[in-house]
Write a structure and sequence with these properties.
- By secondary structure, the chain is an alpha/beta fold.
- The protein has one domain (about 1-200, about 240-310): Inosine-uridine Nucleoside N-ribohydrolase, Chain A (Alpha-Beta Complex).
- It contains 13 helices and eleven strands.
- The longest helix is centred in the last third of the chain and has 22 residues, at about 215-235.
- It is globular, with a radius of gyration of 18 Å.
- It binds beta-D-ribofuranose and calcium ion.
- Calcium ion (CA) binds near residues 11, 14, 37, 125 and 126.
């Protein structure tokens, strides 16, 4: 059983990842923490609470609100063209009676790690700000958590917020670099693999036509948000009726690392520069620079991953 804290900036694909994790028997979600990114931290938190209500669980999952700004600089504002006016494609979910904890996300991560040493997998689906803040409060955190799986970065492919940088890393490069330097057992699930894992409209329609009654409301939600997402990728990437699987792939890799080819490489994040800020820098020279080894996903069984994702909602 993977006991996890999911840290997210909910976000269309974050929401799909959360619902997927909640539906998987191999995972127990111990808490969800939120930050700014795709949308404001308040909106991200409200979205998580609404998603938990939609999932109709028999137990309550604590939700802790986190950083509203990156470690340095300021948040750029919501990415409406990708994630809609409310972060979840304009889909209106019923509000929840559940309130977020009084505890900030970074405190929650530290407390949970201390209470469950060596047990927790932290899955980050947004900027690594909350994890970096938690690390500042508890420098032993890399020893207290089992591992970290992060959607973020790109090694060999193109970036998505600049020619070389991916949004979650570019949104807070200092946080990502601090997390890397701390020496977590860290796996980065970047655009090299998420762009090669695609949800197609055809598969979505099949799911909609054949899902069980118990999944109907969740599948209707997926259909609504992914309709928005497909529209963005159609105009942005000339992707005709298919879209990448970013955040859910991090959850899939946490469950089944066999879906990807992994390589450990000495890694830093470029925190300066006009064109390269937020780039993941790996050193493949035999005499490499002095940096912690991070596990990167370089290839993926994309069809299998996408089918595993969608069939979970049948
Ligand atoms: C990442 O950026 C956000 O838009 C997505 O939610 C995902 O976490 C992809 O670059
Ligand atoms: Ca995200």
């Amino acid at each position: 059983m993977i006991r996890t804290i999911i840290d997210c900036d909910t976000g269309i694909d974050d929401s799909v990842a959360i619902l997927f994790a909640l539906r998987r028997p191999e995972i127990h979600v111990e808490g969800i923490t939120t930050g700014c990114g795709n949308t404001s931290v308040d909106q991200a938190t409200d979205n998580v609470l609404r998603l938990l209500k939609l999932a109709e669980l028999s137990y309550e999952i604590p939700v802790a609100k986190g950083a509203g700004q990156p470690l340095e600089g300021t948040w750029d504002g919501p990415v409406v063209r990708v994630h809609g006016p409310n972060g979840i494609g304009g889909v209106e979910l019923p509000s929840s009676e559940q309130c977020p904890l009084d505890e900030p996300a970074s405190d929650f991560i530290v407390r949970m790690a201390r209470e469950n040493p060596g047990e927790l997998t932290v899955i980050t689906l947004g900027r690594m700000t909350n994890l970096a803040l938690a690390l500042q409060k508890e420098p032993m955190l890399p020893k207290l958590v089992k591992n970290v799986v992060s959607m973020g970065g790109v090694i060999y492919g193109a970036g998505n917020t600049s020619p070389v940088a991916e949004a979650n890393i570019a949104g807070d490069p200092e946080a990502a670099d601090q997390v890397i330097m701390a020496g977590f057992d860290l796996t980065m699930v970047g655009l090299d693999v998420t762009m090669k894992t695609r949800i197609t409209r055809q598969r979505l329609e099949f799911l909609r036509a054949h899902c069980s009654a118990s999944n109907r409301r969740v599948v209707d939600y997926l259909h609504g948000v992914l309709e928005y997402y497909l529209g963005y990728y159609r105009t942005q990437d000339f992707a005709f009726d298919h879209c990448p699987v970013h955040d859910p792939l991090a959850v899939l890799v946490a469950i089944d690392p066999g879906l990807v080819s992994l390589k450990k490489l000495p890694t830093r994040i470029e925190c300066g520069g006009q064109y390269c800020r937020g780039k993941v820098v790996v050193d493949e020279r035999p005499h490499h620079f002095d940096a912690p080894f991070v596990t990167h996903c370089l290839a993926v069984a994309g069809d299998r991953a996408a089918e595993e994702l969608l069939s979970t909602f049948m």
